[in-house]
Amino acid sequence: MSKKLNLLVTGLNGVVGKALRPALEERYTISALSRSGVDGLPDERVFKANIADIESIRPAFEGIDVVLNLAADGGLGSEDGMNAGWDSMLKNNIIGAYNVLEIANQAGVSRVILASSGATSNGYELQQPYKTLVSTEDLELPHSWDMVNEFSEPKPISLYGVTKLFGEDIGRYYSLTTPLSVINLRISSCGPIDEAGPGRGQANWSSHRDLQQLTVKIIEAPPDLKFDIFWATSDNRKLFRDNSHAKDVLGYAPQDGVS
User: Fold this and answer.
1) Helix-, strand-, coil-residue percentages of the chain, each rounded to 5
2) pTM flag (> 0.90)
3) Separation between Cα atoms, residue 125 and residue 200, nearest integer Å
4) For residue range 66-117, what is the model confidence (pLDDT) as tens digits?
5) How far, in Å, CA of 198 to CA of 119, rounded?
6) Gap between the Cα atoms of 38 and 5, Å rounded
7) Rounded to 5 degrees, what angle do the CA atoms 96, 36, 165 make?
8) The dihedral sign for the CA sequence 17, 232, 236, 78
9) CATH superfamily of the domain spanning 6-250
10) How many C-beta atoms lie closer than 10 Å to residue 23's C-beta?
């Protein structure tokens, strides 16, 4: 690329933001939008604002090519996990998603990437064979199982998962009614330590470098990819969150996985 793409990241201080930041800084000119600020970036590329206040975030979008929206409440990195309060999730996950898409469209941004979540489908883990696949016990695995892909029936079992489904749907709306390309990235088990945890982490893990690779491929995907949903998972032996769509559409090639 002759000119570095201008990328605005919300929530860069979060777990996923920290995992992605080295790869993003290597390839793009990064700006950050957060309530508390971000260290290590020039002052003119750090915007302090509340994502739920639409006018306060507008200056951050000037001259931006692509937005990566990681800001949210209720995920594993949040103080109260998926039990975060409704008021906070309403402001950050629902109003915030709308605000980001609306201002991005007004500012002429070409693409918005919305961080979705495996929480959109966690209900599968309450039933077999997925219950066995995520168990912390050493159980005999089934010989095969149906994969849960991006277009399987959603099964949220938390309000956090519901808010992420809202993000996917409002993203579809903007992709159909505006020039924006909107891509949803369903991030699976990705923590501050780059290794798979026990139980469900053995099935759902996404390594930092696999998540970095997939995110870069989404950022740089052709403009005619107007809308899509991709699972961010490594190639784990117990995998049931199907990453084959990302492989087929984007050429995603995971380097890691739990054997």
Assistant:
1) 40, 15, 45
2) yes
3) 9
4) 999 999 987 666 666 677 789 999 999 999 999 999 999 999 999 999 999 9
5) 18
6) 20
7) 25
8) positive
9) NAD(P)-binding Rossmann-like Domain (3.40.50.720)
10) 16
Alpha carbon distance 43, 104 (integer Å) = 21
What are the structure tokens assigned to 91, written together? Answer: 């402001």
* CA dihedral sign, ordered 227, 233, 237, 241: negative
Name the residue among 232, 254, 250 with its Cα closest to residue 241. 232
Task: Give the DSSP letter string of 142-158.
Answer: PS----B-TTSPP---S
Q: What gap in Å lies between CA 116 and CA 120, rounded to an integer?
A: 8
Task: For 65-129, give the DSSP string.
Answer: SEEEE---SSSTTSTTGGG--HHHHIIIIIIHHHHHHHHHHHHT-SEEEEEEEGGGSGGGGGSTT
What are the mean pLDDT values of the chain's consecutive 10-residue runs (259 residues total)?
86 95 97 93 96 97 98 75 85 97 98 97 97 95 96 95 97 98 96 94 97 98 98 97 98 96
Backbone angles phi, psi at 232, to 5 degrees: -95, 95
| The token pair that represents 95 in the structure block | 């109003």
Amino acid code (one letter) for 153 = E
Eight-state DSSP code of residue 62? T
CB 1 within 8 A of CB 29: no
What are the residue boundaries of the structural domains of the chain, listed by start? Answer: 6-250
